[in-house]
Amino acid sequence: MFLRPHPLVYVSALALAALQCKSSDTAASKTPENVRSERVQNTNGHDEQTAKQAPLDDAQIAAITAAANTAEIEQGRLAQEKAHDPRVRDFGAMMVDHHGEARQDQLRLSVEPTQGTDSQRVQRDAEDALRSLKQKDGKDFDRAYLQLQIDQQRRVRDELQDQLLPSAKDPGLKAYLEDIKPKVESHLAQAERLQEEMNGTSSLDDQRPMSSDKKPPKTHSSSPR
Asked: What domains sit in the chain, N to C, each tagged with a CATH number?
Protein backbone atom coordinates (compact mmCIF):
# COMPACT_ATOMS: atom_id res chain seq x y z
CA MET A 1 0.00 0.00 0.00
CA PHE A 2 1.29 3.45 -0.97
CA LEU A 3 1.61 5.90 1.94
CA ARG A 4 1.54 9.65 1.24
CA PRO A 5 4.24 11.60 3.12
CA HIS A 6 3.06 13.78 5.92
CA PRO A 7 2.92 17.55 5.04
CA LEU A 8 5.51 18.25 7.74
CA VAL A 9 8.03 16.27 5.72
CA TYR A 10 7.65 18.69 2.81
CA VAL A 11 8.05 21.69 5.12
CA SER A 12 11.22 20.29 6.70
CA ALA A 13 12.74 19.51 3.31
CA LEU A 14 12.07 23.02 2.02
CA ALA A 15 13.57 24.60 5.14
CA LEU A 16 16.71 22.46 4.85
CA ALA A 17 17.12 23.40 1.18
CA ALA A 18 16.77 27.12 2.01
CA LEU A 19 19.44 26.89 4.71
CA GLN A 20 21.85 25.13 2.33
CA CYS A 21 21.34 27.83 -0.32
CA LYS A 22 21.97 30.59 2.25
CA SER A 23 25.18 28.91 3.43
CA SER A 24 26.40 28.61 -0.15
CA ASP A 25 25.71 32.32 -0.83
CA THR A 26 27.54 33.36 2.35
CA ALA A 27 30.57 31.23 1.52
CA ALA A 28 30.66 32.59 -2.01
CA SER A 29 30.56 36.19 -0.75
CA LYS A 30 33.61 35.58 1.47
CA THR A 31 36.09 35.52 -1.37
CA PRO A 32 39.60 36.90 -0.70
CA GLU A 33 38.76 40.09 -2.57
CA ASN A 34 35.63 40.68 -0.54
CA VAL A 35 37.44 39.99 2.71
CA ARG A 36 40.18 42.48 1.81
CA SER A 37 37.62 45.12 0.91
CA GLU A 38 35.70 44.86 4.18
CA ARG A 39 35.71 48.07 6.17
CA VAL A 40 35.53 48.79 9.86
CA GLN A 41 34.45 51.89 11.74
CA ASN A 42 37.30 53.76 13.45
CA THR A 43 36.97 55.83 16.63
CA ASN A 44 36.06 58.95 14.66
CA GLY A 45 33.22 57.19 12.87
CA HIS A 46 34.94 57.20 9.46
CA ASP A 47 35.50 54.14 7.27
CA GLU A 48 39.02 52.73 7.15
CA GLN A 49 40.55 49.87 5.21
CA THR A 50 41.53 47.01 7.48
CA ALA A 51 44.72 46.42 5.50
CA LYS A 52 47.92 47.42 7.28
CA GLN A 53 49.83 50.45 6.04
CA ALA A 54 53.02 49.59 4.19
CA PRO A 55 56.24 50.64 5.99
CA LEU A 56 57.81 53.91 4.89
CA ASP A 57 61.00 54.00 2.86
CA ASP A 58 63.83 56.50 3.39
CA ALA A 59 62.70 58.86 0.62
CA GLN A 60 59.20 59.08 2.09
CA ILE A 61 60.60 59.69 5.58
CA ALA A 62 62.77 62.51 4.22
CA ALA A 63 59.69 64.07 2.62
CA ILE A 64 57.83 63.98 5.95
CA THR A 65 60.61 65.70 7.90
CA ALA A 66 61.09 68.27 5.11
CA ALA A 67 57.38 69.12 5.22
CA ALA A 68 57.46 69.38 9.02
CA ASN A 69 60.45 71.74 8.95
CA THR A 70 58.80 74.00 6.38
CA ALA A 71 55.58 74.10 8.40
CA GLU A 72 57.35 75.07 11.62
CA ILE A 73 59.34 77.81 9.88
CA GLU A 74 56.23 79.36 8.32
CA GLN A 75 54.28 79.22 11.58
CA GLY A 76 57.22 80.65 13.54
CA ARG A 77 57.58 83.58 11.17
CA LEU A 78 53.89 84.32 11.52
CA ALA A 79 54.25 84.22 15.32
CA GLN A 80 57.05 86.78 15.10
CA GLU A 81 54.70 89.09 13.21
CA LYS A 82 51.39 88.58 15.02
CA ALA A 83 52.05 87.39 18.57
CA HIS A 84 50.92 89.73 21.33
CA ASP A 85 53.10 88.34 24.11
CA PRO A 86 56.87 88.79 23.61
CA ARG A 87 57.46 85.30 25.00
CA VAL A 88 55.43 83.85 22.14
CA ARG A 89 57.35 85.96 19.62
CA ASP A 90 60.62 84.66 21.09
CA PHE A 91 59.37 81.09 20.89
CA GLY A 92 58.43 81.59 17.24
CA ALA A 93 61.89 83.00 16.50
CA MET A 94 63.51 79.98 18.15
CA MET A 95 61.41 77.61 16.04
CA VAL A 96 62.44 79.41 12.85
CA ASP A 97 66.12 79.13 13.82
CA HIS A 98 66.03 75.51 14.93
CA HIS A 99 64.00 74.20 12.01
CA GLY A 100 66.05 76.27 9.59
CA GLU A 101 69.13 74.49 10.90
CA ALA A 102 67.35 71.12 10.68
CA ARG A 103 66.42 71.81 7.06
CA GLN A 104 70.02 72.64 6.22
CA ASP A 105 71.21 69.45 7.94
CA GLN A 106 68.75 67.39 5.93
CA LEU A 107 69.99 68.88 2.66
CA ARG A 108 73.39 67.34 3.40
CA LEU A 109 71.91 63.83 3.49
CA SER A 110 72.18 61.49 0.53
CA VAL A 111 68.43 60.75 0.64
CA GLU A 112 66.21 62.61 -1.84
CA PRO A 113 62.65 63.19 -0.58
CA THR A 114 59.80 61.48 -2.43
CA GLN A 115 56.25 62.63 -1.78
CA GLY A 116 53.89 60.06 -0.28
CA THR A 117 50.55 59.95 1.49
CA ASP A 118 52.03 60.88 4.88
CA SER A 119 54.08 63.86 3.69
CA GLN A 120 51.09 65.16 1.74
CA ARG A 121 48.98 64.85 4.91
CA VAL A 122 51.58 66.88 6.82
CA GLN A 123 51.48 69.58 4.15
CA ARG A 124 47.68 69.74 4.11
CA ASP A 125 47.48 69.94 7.90
CA ALA A 126 50.14 72.67 7.95
CA GLU A 127 48.32 74.72 5.32
CA ASP A 128 45.05 74.45 7.25
CA ALA A 129 46.77 75.42 10.52
CA LEU A 130 48.51 78.42 8.97
CA ARG A 131 45.26 79.59 7.37
CA SER A 132 43.52 79.37 10.74
CA LEU A 133 46.32 81.24 12.55
CA LYS A 134 46.20 84.10 10.06
CA GLN A 135 42.60 84.74 11.06
CA LYS A 136 43.51 85.32 14.73
CA ASP A 137 45.04 88.32 16.45
CA GLY A 138 46.43 89.34 19.80
CA LYS A 139 46.00 86.99 22.72
CA ASP A 140 43.76 84.70 20.67
CA PHE A 141 46.67 84.17 18.30
CA ASP A 142 49.05 83.46 21.18
CA ARG A 143 46.77 80.78 22.63
CA ALA A 144 46.08 79.17 19.25
CA TYR A 145 49.77 79.13 18.24
CA LEU A 146 50.92 77.56 21.50
CA GLN A 147 48.20 74.90 21.41
CA LEU A 148 49.11 74.13 17.81
CA GLN A 149 52.76 73.75 18.80
CA ILE A 150 51.92 71.41 21.65
CA ASP A 151 49.74 69.24 19.40
CA GLN A 152 52.31 69.17 16.59
CA GLN A 153 55.31 68.40 18.81
CA ARG A 154 53.44 65.53 20.46
CA ARG A 155 52.48 64.08 17.09
CA VAL A 156 55.99 64.41 15.68
CA ARG A 157 57.49 62.87 18.82
CA ASP A 158 55.19 59.87 18.57
CA GLU A 159 55.73 59.41 14.83
CA LEU A 160 59.49 59.60 15.26
CA GLN A 161 59.42 56.94 17.94
CA ASP A 162 56.82 54.60 16.46
CA GLN A 163 57.17 54.98 12.69
CA LEU A 164 60.08 57.01 11.31
CA LEU A 165 62.99 55.70 13.36
CA PRO A 166 61.99 52.02 13.11
CA SER A 167 61.56 52.34 9.31
CA ALA A 168 64.71 54.33 8.47
CA LYS A 169 67.48 52.34 6.76
CA ASP A 170 70.03 54.92 5.65
CA PRO A 171 72.57 55.48 8.47
CA GLY A 172 72.73 59.23 7.85
CA LEU A 173 68.97 59.60 7.88
CA LYS A 174 68.68 57.50 11.04
CA ALA A 175 71.31 59.65 12.77
CA TYR A 176 69.45 62.78 11.66
CA LEU A 177 66.21 61.49 13.18
CA GLU A 178 68.00 60.56 16.40
CA ASP A 179 69.41 64.09 16.54
CA ILE A 180 66.09 65.90 16.11
CA LYS A 181 64.16 63.72 18.55
CA PRO A 182 65.45 65.40 21.78
CA LYS A 183 64.92 68.81 20.15
CA VAL A 184 61.29 67.97 19.49
CA GLU A 185 60.89 66.90 23.12
CA SER A 186 62.54 70.16 24.25
CA HIS A 187 60.22 72.25 22.05
CA LEU A 188 57.22 70.42 23.50
CA ALA A 189 58.35 71.03 27.08
CA GLN A 190 58.97 74.72 26.40
CA ALA A 191 55.59 75.19 24.72
CA GLU A 192 53.78 73.45 27.59
CA ARG A 193 55.64 75.52 30.18
CA LEU A 194 54.90 78.75 28.32
CA GLN A 195 51.24 77.84 28.06
CA GLU A 196 51.10 77.25 31.82
CA GLU A 197 52.78 80.61 32.47
CA MET A 198 50.35 82.41 30.21
CA ASN A 199 47.39 80.75 31.90
CA GLY A 200 48.62 82.28 35.14
CA THR A 201 49.38 85.74 33.77
CA SER A 202 47.71 87.39 30.81
CA SER A 203 50.83 88.96 29.32
CA LEU A 204 54.29 90.22 30.13
CA ASP A 205 52.98 93.66 29.22
CA ASP A 206 50.88 93.54 32.40
CA GLN A 207 53.96 92.76 34.50
CA ARG A 208 56.30 95.50 33.31
CA PRO A 209 57.41 97.95 36.05
CA MET A 210 56.03 101.46 35.94
CA SER A 211 58.24 103.88 34.05
CA SER A 212 60.07 106.58 35.95
CA ASP A 213 57.98 109.41 34.45
CA LYS A 214 54.80 107.86 35.84
CA LYS A 215 54.94 108.28 39.60
CA PRO A 216 52.46 106.51 41.84
CA PRO A 217 49.71 108.68 43.28
CA LYS A 218 50.54 110.37 46.58
CA THR A 219 48.89 109.08 49.67
CA HIS A 220 47.72 111.67 52.19
CA SER A 221 48.69 110.81 55.71
CA SER A 222 47.03 112.56 58.58
CA SER A 223 49.27 115.17 60.19
CA PRO A 224 49.90 114.86 63.90
CA ARG A 225 47.95 117.24 66.06
From this structure: 58-202 (1.20.1260)
